Fold:
Amino acid sequence: MRRSLVAGNWKMHGTRQSVETLLGGLNQQDWPEEVDLVIAPPALYIQQCREALEGSPVSLAGQSSATQAEPGALTGEVSPAQLRDAGCEYVLVGHSERRSLFGETDEMVCKKFAAALACGLRPILCVGETREQRDAGETAEVVGRQLQVVLESFGVGGLAQGVVAYEPVWAIGTGLTASPEEAQDVHSMIRGRLAMLDDEQARCVQIVYGGSVKADNAEALFAMPDIDGGLVGGASLNADEFGAIARAAGRA
Ligand code: PEP
Structure:
């Protein structure tokens, strides 16, 4: 049976003071035991989060990492080995903001996935279509292509060592959520595609949904058979809201 996973992506938000307040709120939550819980703070605050979350079930993730595990002359980058050293267990790879604003290609995303796995991190591979691509009926093709490059290198078993996050670009940070049925359609398409390659492993892959998940829409989304939790942006900056989303995943 797959476990649910709820991850919070703090993006480029926070100061030491606001992070302390948010962590205080997170430490007051009643966390569900059956859900994998993750937060992805800005890299600067990972250490602060690690100390404050000592003994908590909440794991840490990087928001991005370099395409290589080895140290090197890559000014401004954070390596997956450094994230691991700092206490992270996960890292986001291929978030749509990295793809669209920082020019990350499928090939770079695949290298990041590889480097993360090599360092013992679980990569959370983000895939998803734009509004134009959805309107043109290209969702399956776009998502399929984003997955394909990783599948060619690692197979379904490799993908299962990470997590897939289906995040329709038009739903990220917009307040527009895919309906549970729309999201389920894509999740089931993804799992079906994986099952054609390896049925047994496909059933193990955690596929979470991201795109304006809130406490009041989480339950309906997570009730869908192929939605194994959520990747939460804006709502993860509020501890009570994030806690409520995690508990919704626990009830699913
Ligand atoms: C995200 O950043 O991955 C995300 C899903 O953001 P939001 O929940 O704010 O749409």
